[in-house]
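Fold Annotation — chain and its backbone

Encoding — discrete vocabulary of local shapes
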Amino acid sequence: MATRHHHTENHDPGAAPGSCSGHAPKADHLTVTNSADVTECLVMPGTPVIKSEAEEAGLYRDYNGQRYWLCCATCGPLFDADPDRYADAA
């Protein structure tokens, strides 16, 4: 089971439901993004991630030859602490 985390600082009320501190893309941005460029954060399940934007922001991890995209900076240390847990959920 993934660790859910909640942020109250800098929360963006216009962010997609279930989003992490407003870092998830806006719903209207998701509709115009190529579906191959959209994934879900493994640390915060249900939170969409636009891969290209996550890469620009450094919100990804490469582990065992696979890339994993994250919704926010808080997810990085959580992934790093137990990468097998999240990689196995993929």
User: Anything to note?
Assistant: The helical segments are 27-31, 51-56, 75-81, 83-89. The chain has four helices and four strands.
